[in-house]
Amino acid sequence: MSLWHTVVQPCAAMTSSKRVLIWDIPVRLLHLVLAGSISVALIIALGFGKEHPLFVYHAWFGMLAGGALGVRLVLGFAGSRYARFSAWKFSPRALIASFGAMRRGDRGVRDAGHNPSASWVMLGILVLTGAVLGTGLAGGEDIHEIAAYVLLAFIGLHLAGLVVHTIWHREVIALSMVDGKKVAPAEAALRHASPVVGVMVALLLASWGVVLVRGFDAAAGTLRLPFLAQPISLVEDDEKGGGEGKRGADHDDD
Question: What predicted TM-score, i.e. pTM, was given to this entire model?
Answer without folding.
Answer: 0.84
